[in-house]
């Protein structure tokens, strides 16, 4: 069973950048599809991005396309989310999640990811 720990969150001004990291342990990292999700204050958790086990295929929610970039380093058991041009609407708790890569799908539904990190707060001030 894989354990996930996020880092890199914080307070940033409108238009700024942050890079989130999610370190995995206890499993074969390259056998997992990885996802990033966020939960804004008072709202439901929403999909942000996903990346295939190889890192070749990625998926993004429309609201972050062109601003966020997901990547992974299988040698370091880590997935990243580079976030640029941040706006106050990006304020949320960001969590990484993992699911088996056996079906090759980059799914957006949180319920299909069995493993989750504890989350890291991202706050964008106006």
Largest sheet: 7 strands, mixed
Whole-angstrom Rg: 13 Å
Apparent shape? globular
Give the SSE string.
EEEEEEEEEEE
Pick out the low-confidence regions: none
- Broad structural category: mainly beta
Return the average pLDDT rounded to an integer: 97
Q: How many helices does DSSP assign? A: 0
Oligomer: single chain
Describe this structure in words.
It is a single chain. It contains no helices and eleven strands. The protein is mainly β and 126 residues long. Strands 2, 4, 5, 6, 9, 10 and 11 form a seven-stranded mixed sheet that branches. The protein has a four-stranded antiparallel sheet with strand order 1-3-8-7, with no helix packed on it. The chain is globular and about 40 Å long.
Summarize this, please?
The chain has 126 residues and is mainly beta. The protein has strands at residues 3-7, 10-13, 18-25, 32-39, 46-51, 58-60, 68-73, 78-83, 92-100, 115-116, 120-125. Helix content is 0%, strand content 50%.
Topology:
Elements: E1 3-7, E2 10-13, E3 18-25, E4 32-39, E5 46-51, E6 58-60, E7 68-73, E8 78-83, E9 92-100, E10 115-116, E11 120-125
Parallel strand pairs: 2-11
Antiparallel strand pairs: 1-3, 3-8, 4-5, 4-9, 5-6, 7-8, 9-10, 9-11
Features:
126 residues, mainly beta
């Amino acid at each position: 069973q894989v354990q996930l720990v996020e880092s890199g969150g914080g307070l940033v001004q409108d238009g700024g950048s942050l890079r989130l990291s999610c370190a995995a342990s206890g499993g074969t990292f390259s056998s997992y599809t990885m996802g990033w999700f966020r939960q804004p204050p008072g709202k439901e958790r929403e999909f942000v991005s996903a990346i295939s086990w190889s890192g070749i295929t990625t998926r993004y929610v429309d609201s972050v396309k062109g601003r966020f970039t997901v990547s992974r380093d299988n040698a370091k058991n880590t997935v990243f989310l580079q976030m640029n041009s941040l706006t106050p609407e990006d304020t949320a708790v960001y969590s990484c999640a993992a699911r088996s890569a056996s079906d090759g799908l980059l799914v957006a539904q949180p319920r299909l990811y069995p493993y989750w990190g504890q989350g890291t707060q991202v706050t964008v001030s106006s």
